[in-house]
C-alpha cells in the first residue's frame, strides 16, 4: 500500500503542470476523465516497476529511478520540456485517431507520459552511471 501511495504522489507531482495545462485545453468532463485515467495508468506502471525492482533486489536501479523521478519533477519549473512533450503527443494522437471524447485525451496523456518517461530513463541511466563510477554513492541493500 505504501508503494502505491508513493507512486500516486510522485506521478501526480510529475503530472501537475501538464495536468493544469490540459484542464484548459480539455474542458469536457469525459476528456478530463481520460486524462486522469492516463495519469493513473502511469501510477500503475511505475508502482509495478518499483515492485519488480524491489522483489528482484535491484536496489541501486530502484534508487536511481526514484531520484530520477524527483529530478524530472523539477523540470516543471522550466515548462518548455513539458509543453514540447505535450505538443508532440497531441499532434501525433490527433493525427492518428482525431478527436474522440475521452479516448484522445487518454492516448495523448499516455504519449506525453511515455515521452517524459523516456527522459526519466535517460536520467536514471546517468544516475546509475554516476553511482557505479563512485561506489560511495551506492545504497546498502535493506
Summarize the entry for a quick read.
This protein is mainly α and 142 residues long.
Describe this structure in words.
With 142 residues, the chain is mostly helical. Helix content is 82%, strand content 0%. The chain has helices at 2-25, 29-55, 59-74, 80-97, 103-133. Helix 1 (2-25) packs antiparallel against helix 2 (29-55), helix 2 (29-55) packs parallel to helix 5 (103-133) and helix 4 packs across helix 5 (103-133). The two termini are 18 Å apart.
Shape: elongated
Rg value: 16 Å
Overall tally of structural domains:
1
- Give the distance, in angstroms, between the N- and C-terminal Cα atoms: 18 Å
| Residue-averaged pLDDT | 92
Count the E strands.
0
* Percent of sequence in beta strands: under 5%
Q: What's the helical proportion of residues?
A: over 70%
In the predicted model, the low-confidence regions spanning at least 5 consecutive residues are: none
Structural class: mainly alpha
- Element-by-element helix/strand order: HHHHH
